[in-house]
Design a protein that fits this description.
This protein is an alpha/beta fold. The chain has one domain. The chain has 12 helices and 8 strands. The chain has a 6-stranded mixed beta sheet with strand order 3-2-4-1-7-8, sandwiched between helices. It has a two-stranded antiparallel sheet with strand order 5-6. The chain is globular, with a radius of gyration of 20 Å.
Length: 340
Amino acid sequence: MRLVVRLSNMYRRVLAVALGCIGPGAAYGATGFLARLLYRLLEPVRTRAESQCRAALGKRMDDSDIAVLAEHAFVHRVWNLTDLMLADRFLHPGTFHRYGGQIPQPFRGVLLDAQHRRHPVILVTAYYGPFDLLPLFLGYNGVRAAVAYRPHRNPGFDAYRLRIRARSGCELVPVERAAGRFAQVLAEGGTVALVADHHAERRGLPATFLGLPTTAMRSVGLLAQHYSASVGVAGIRRVGNAFRFEIVVSGILHQHQWASAADPAARITDFYLRALEQIILADPVQYLWTHARWGEEAAQQLADSADGPGPPPDPEVMPLTRNADRSTRFEGGLHNGSGQ
């Protein structure tokens, strides 16, 4: 096993050099070709991706388009590694803006103002697009955040990925330490960031996501409620295959907007789920459809009945369109704990 890990690390180093030398266009072309071959060989992966796409999007897309979307989504997943390797060479403090890495205004100004005033903020995203690069872009935009991450089982690759993602100044916090560290950062008026489109198997909040029943994490709502934090929802998309990106902000919720709710944690959770849906449905090919978003049991059931129709979509979910409005939705500035 140690030999396999060493060989994989050596391969990764050689691949990173090769991709950096041939440039983004050729790098995406080569890795995309290999990803499509792999996808067609891995029938269980293909079945899971297509069945989950069909269940969530089947009322919005033709079945033939579902298969194409699922395959392209797998290519985007492989491109996450390509992005990371290209970022090691191309993304630096003086260059990141060339690649679309600016946080759009007024959201960037709001985050920097909150940082200056020591107002706690929770940033939420999904397994969408090149999410590994978000900590890098946050730091280069001047936002210092504690970011939860799941360590890779290969220590060599984990150190490589961590070095790139943290070099703009954000603190990468392993998930097993995130609860305690996030509480400390928010208590000090800082910013934390996490992927929050997980299916919570235990003690989750009943909800829907992309029209399907799920149980959502309570932690975001409970942390926001306890520390009077604002909750912002954003994601990052690739633009074409030229190593360009677009940071999109779906919304921000302030303490005064959830304080009077009968269940503030539920109000906050519903807000960020709907905001994540908006990002995903604007360009669903960049969502990680192989991720068991609705739980392993549901993923298996969908795969077993892959030829059957999916459930009807949630009427509150935005209709799917390739040219969906990508403008930033923003409601006012950050407020302090009193809502003033």
